[in-house]
Amino acid sequence: MDYMIIASGGMVAAINPETGNIKWETTLKGKSRLQGDVSLMIEKDVIFAGCMGHLFCLDKHNGNIKWHNGLKGWGYGSVLIGFKDKLAGASGFTNGSVTTGTM
């Protein structure tokens, strides 16, 4: 089954689209829990997630964090993700607007 991947407030989760049940959920953390909007990009078996100046790579099947880069010196804003001609990003901390597309 394919699960829907959602993100908000420093959290990423896989949701069963037929029942709404959560398969897994992951809290994105730097030194503490990150609370901002989350940019997502799914590529094969991984999910790239950007939040408040941090970049994460999660396992798509269980939500485990494979790696985390705190992007030291980049600040704490939204993270725009570009990979293999795809572009994804969340902008703003209040309106939750999302930008997606191709490069």
Characterize this entry briefly.
It is built from no helices and 10 strands. It is an all-beta fold and about 100 residues long.
How would you describe the shape?
globular
Side by side, the strands of the main sheet go: 4-5-6-7
The structural domain count equals: 1
Which regions are unreliable across 5 or more consecutive residues at pLDDT < 50?
A: 92-103
Q: What is the N-to-C order of secondary-structure elements (H for helix, E for strand)?
A: EEEEEEEEEE
CATH architectural group: Beta Barrel
| Radius of gyration based on Cα positions | 13 Å
For this structure, what is the CATH class?
Answer: Mainly Beta
* Class derived from helix and strand content: mainly beta
For the largest beta-sheet, the strand count, sense and barrel status come to: 4 strands, antiparallel
Q: What's the number of helices? A: 0
Amount of beta strand:
over 45%
Helicity level: under 10%
The count of DSSP E runs of length 2 or more, i.e. the number of strands, is 10
CATH topology-level name: Lipocalin
User: What is the straight-line distance between the termini?
Assistant: 29 Å
Average pLDDT, all residues: 81
List keywords for this structure.
103 residues; mainly beta; Lipocalin; four-stranded antiparallel sheet; three-stranded antiparallel sheet; globular
Structure explained in plain terms:
This protein has a single domain, classed as Lipocalin (Beta Barrel). It has no helices and ten strands. The strands form three sheets. It has a four-stranded antiparallel sheet, with no helix packed on it. Strands 1-2-3 form a three-stranded antiparallel sheet, with no helix packed on it. By secondary structure, it is mainly beta. A hairpin with a 2-residue loop joins strand 5 and strand 6. It is globular and about 40 Å long.
